[in-house]
Amino acid sequence: MTEPITASYVQEDGDWKITVSGSGKELTGRAPGIIAARDRADQLVEKLSPPEHSTVVHLLNGSALEFTAAYMTARLTLPEIEPLEVPPPANGKAKEKAAKPPVPQGKELPKAVDEAKSKEKAEPAKTPAKAAQTS
């Protein structure tokens, strides 16, 4: 049979006091935030009863809904972070380097590659339909 257990949360001076009661026993603990308090409550529940034999109701100010709202808000709220700063480019040379692929030192592109590139720029590529018309 499942044993009902109540975990009550009270905020005191920035910390949370947790009181877990059930099976005629009561255990207390403290934690720095509501998420840590929820974890601490789970630890206290395990001391009272095996997890498979217990149903835990978490209460904040006597309300399960209020606890759930506070807990989920804490879980889903992202921490504030400073905006990312992107440094400006060092100078115009960075654009030139990005446009041309680097050539390893001591090696040059073969003359045939240079000629093929300049020929491509001079003559647009023929589509198969145009090639068939000229043939």
TrEMBL record:
Residues 125-135 have a biased composition (Low complexity). Residues 83-135 are annotated as: Disordered. It comes from the Bacteria. Residues 108-124 have a biased composition (Basic and acidic residues). This is DUF2188 domain-containing protein. It comes from Amycolatopsis roodepoortensis. The lineage of its organism: Bacteria, Bacillati, Actinomycetota, Actinomycetes, Pseudonocardiales.
